[in-house]
Amino acid sequence: MKSKFGNNLYLIAEIGVNHEGSIARAKKMIFDAKNAGAHAVKFQSYKASKIAAVNSPAYWDLSKEPTKSQYELFSKYDSFTDSDYIDLHNYCKKINIDFMSTPFDLDAVEFLDGLVSSFKIASADITNIPLLVRVASKQKPIILSTGCSTVKEIKNALSILEKKGCPEIILLHCILNYPTNNENANLGMIIDLQKKFPKNHIGYSDHTLPDSTMSVLQTSYILGCRVIEKHFTDDKLAKGNDHYHSMDKNDLLNFISKTVFLDEILGDFTKYPLESEKSAILNARRSIYYNNNIDFGNRIKENDLISLRPGHGVSPIFFQKIIGKTLKKSVTKNTPFNWTDVE
User: Fold this and answer.
1) Which of 35, 174, 221, 259 has the fewest CB atoms within 10 Å around its CB?
2) In this predicted structure, what is the pLDDT of residue 33?
3) 252 by DSSP, 3-state: which?
């Protein structure tokens, strides 16, 4: 089955709620993301009362986002209406970038079904069975983050989604820390996920602090991740929310430019001799030469042969097969062996 996302980079700029309730700001970020090379922008569709109880403690770095209650934080940014999301969807369509939004409740799933071509499920909902079932029932590709999950939980989620008819599931390695310290990024888990879930493409959702090297995203790309998600903002110095661990348009441009170079040096992940290596195959490899003068009728011994460059003659692959053959003519040292020399 051909993937909706292809084999090239599919970068999701997660605006989330960094728009802080402003449609104009949301559109500006969509515009910036598109012009910097993102393939999709993603929002978060929720109502505070449907995602967190009133007494729901924070799980993020309070020095960056001081709000101590999930309910309180979510209440600040759940003001977008259905018509607002439709407006944003239409704007994305106008400038040719994919619109996505993570649903956090069943009503959001039903509404977004008419706007998205694929669904994103957040790490925290990998055990939210009712949500998984409802999303899978829409039979669209699903991107599932795996932050703070066990392999058993991932397998269970995949089983539910597949049984309900989901045509494609992308798994994203993710660490559910806001922000994620570099020592906790654990990009090696990508390799483990690739081994344990060979049928699924393994991508990456990043919460580390971006720097000029974009080395964390680069490493995930080198490890094979082609669906990559990272929070996106128009102001990395803005206080609170997800601004502090988001990339901006300059970071995105930087990373996109680096993937061009990475594609150039990584190639297509298939081993074969290149056209540029043909000269080396011919001249740097070896062929079999005589190492002694040998008279007609003698049998060839091992020390009568030597492998020398260039590889214009008989390959040393056949070295052992030649030993013991009887010569039909006399040969001289430093001349190439030929099959017509022997009986």
Assistant:
1) 35
2) 98
3) helix
Nearest to 59 by CA among 104, 108, 124, 5: 124
Residues 100-144 pLDDT 10s: 999 999 999 999 999 999 999 999 999 999 999 999 999 999 999
d(CA 171, CA 59): 23
Secondary structure (3-state) at 91: helix
- The span from the CA of 12 to the CA of 116, in Å, is 13
CA distances from 57 to 91, 127, 178, 243 (A): 36, 19, 14, 20
Instruction: Pick 275-341's CATH classification: 3.90.1210.10, 3.30.70.3270, 3.40.50.2300, 3.40.50.720.
Output: 3.90.1210.10
Handedness of CA 135, 227, 200, 127 (dihedral sign): negative
**Whole-prediction pTM:** 0.89
- Specify the CATH number for 10-266; select among 3.40.50.720, 1.10.10.10, 3.20.20.70, 3.30.450.40: 3.20.20.70
Give the C-alpha distances (Å, rounded to integers) separating 311 from 124, 305, 316: 60, 15, 9
Are the C-beta atoms of 99 and 115 separated by less than 8 Å?
A: yes
- Check: CB of residue 160 under 8 Å from CB of residue 136: yes
Q: What integer best gives the mean pLDDT of the chain?
A: 95
Please give the order of strands across the beta sheet that includes 10-16: 98-103, 40-45, 10-16, 227-231, 202-206, 169-174, 142-145, 119-121
Q: Where are the domains of the chain?
A: 10-266, 275-341
Exposure class string for 226-249: b at 16+ Cβ within 10 A, else e: bbbbbbbbbeeeeeebbbbbbbbb
Predicted pLDDT at 1: 42
Gap between the Cα atoms of 230 and 13, Å rounded:
6
